Amino acid sequence: MCDHRLYRRQMRYHVIKVITPKLKPAKQSHVDKIIALSYRLRDAHVIWQTAEKASLINNAYTTWKFCVLLHKVLRLGPKEVIRDSSDYFSLIQSSLIRWEKQNNLIYCCIAAYWKVLYGRIWFLCNYENFTNKLDCDLSHIDDYGENCRISLLSHIFAYQEHLNELLFTVLSALDVQNLNNSGDCRQTFFLAQALPSAVSDSDTLYGYAFLLVKNLRPQLSPDTSSDLCRRFCSLYTIVQEIFDQITFMQMNFGNLLDLPKFTTTLCLDMPKLTLQEPTAPSLMDC
């Protein structure tokens, strides 16, 4: 019990250090401590409760830092942080509405991030075969019936679309910042904190979407197959544009932004569309 209280105090200390309302990225050592403590506590409530007391809805810097932190904890922490975080859906929604109303690129980035985090928590609560990093044994997916796989694919599309919105919004904001703040990289590095986790999630989900569409295509009606193909191709086009922008950033910033690389599958394995009949495009095997 004493250890538990100590861990909670330590967690509060490190969370406060991470989400200070300053235009300065959090120290990785604090983030690492928070993730380690989440395994000791098996609890995310202290993270959320500490953030609630720190003007989470009112300060843009605090909110952005918390979103970045939460995404890392959701990816690298224990399963319990997913379920615990689902208790705060109303807080996510209220903060989302608050920032969505503001006509400002940074505020739009925050709103887009809240959509991603809400979608991530919801997805992992409903698809427990997926790990926190969105990995899944393919045999588990194969065990799903056709309707379940279609539902899974739809939810992957939905989460991927939120990720794409976040990535595009952040990249757009970075372009504006680079034009307006020549010589001042603080805002660039501050916003770019979202990119590593979002890029990794996007890359992983794209791979599952590709496999599901490819495997489902022969089993579906022409209309359903056509709809899935169109949505997948739209998704691919956006992801390809994001890939190009990320690649350009890597050329300019190198490893300074700690950006993961998309897998080569993302670029090379785009399924070709062929029209078997006017209303029934299908994905061809690569």
Automatic annotation (TrEMBL):
Of the GO CC terms on this record, one is: cortical actin cytoskeleton
Under Pfam families, the record lists: ANTH
Q: Which SUPFAM superfamilies match?
A: ENTH/VHS domain
Q: Which GO terms describe its biological process?
A: actin filament organization; clathrin coat assembly; endocytosis
| UniProt-listed InterPro entries | ANTH_dom, ENTH_VHS, Sla2_fam
Ranges for domain AP180 N-terminal homology (ANTH) come to 15-243
Q: Which residues cross the membrane?
A: none
Any idea which GO molecular function terms this record carries?
A: actin filament binding; clathrin adaptor activity; clathrin light chain binding; phosphatidylinositol-3,4-bisphosphate binding; phosphatidylinositol-3,5-bisphosphate binding
This protein is called what? Huntington interacting protein related 1-like
Please report the organism this UniProt entry assigns to the protein.
Glossina fuscipes
